[in-house]
């Protein structure tokens, strides 16, 4: 869908509201008919439109005969994302004469804010300032989504501490993918922002726009550091929880092994009395009571012998004995040193 809009140059209370001296052509959720209209009416090349439609296209700027084209990476529509999976989409910005054309294959909260005039203190008086404003707003949305992802990560970690299923690990994997997408998009946007300072055909109107571009570069670097830090912490968290789950599984297998070994003693006794030979107490009608009692006692003794608590106590006693022995050895050495030659 293609919509022609006008930006308001003043959003501060008490000031006169004026329209910017350029036209904004907002093309979002475009189809084949919209692409044909952009090619015919604004003479945009099909190769550039194909690059904008590519989901993996990286940020860059290029100069053509009739226009200047930029491709930036924007976060997806955050308000419509019901899950924790976030992603970034390419946005094409074409500067042709007195018109700014933004082309995006999906929707974005950044474009929605400018479409509804939900912005303040952004230099939108010129087309170049409007481009910088889009990049600055995108960085703010990136930072907000990174904080949202970090909160979701903390909630999943709390759930993972009480669960041994794979669902929480899959959620952490989705968060990891979102952080990788954000980190890659922010890195490519940083290269574009650095180039805007040196590009001669992208002329800034004054010091205000240049200072604002410097602030956007600083905020973009902060967002990159946040994404890298969250990604590193999440990687360590996933490894730690994977080790915890593996350790819990080993504990369960150990307990099952103890139970199976403890039941070997009753099995041996019952198997012995199952032989067709003369055995003690075989003619006693109450012998089965004694056999069952012996089997139960042997199973209990075997389980207690192999239990974790008993092994832990034995380890503590052995450590305590080693400490006592070490202290005695130290005392003997001191006595030998104190004796005269």
UniProtKB/TrEMBL annotation:
InterPro entries (alphabetical): CorA-like, CorA_cytoplasmic_dom, CorA_TM1_TM2, MgTranspt_CorA/ZnTranspt_ZntB
Transmembrane segments: 256-274, 286-307
Gene Ontology MF, one: metal ion transmembrane transporter activity
Domain of life, per lineage: Bacteria
Chief localisation class: membrane
First and last residue of the signal peptide: none
Keywords per UniProt: Membrane, Transmembrane, Transmembrane helix
Any one of the GO CC terms: membrane
Family note: Belongs to the CorA metal ion transporter (MIT) (TC 1.A.35) family.
Protein name: Mg2 transporter protein CorA family protein
Species of origin: Sphaerochaeta globosa (strain ATCC BAA-1886 / DSM 22777 / Buddy) (Spirochaeta sp. (strain Buddy))
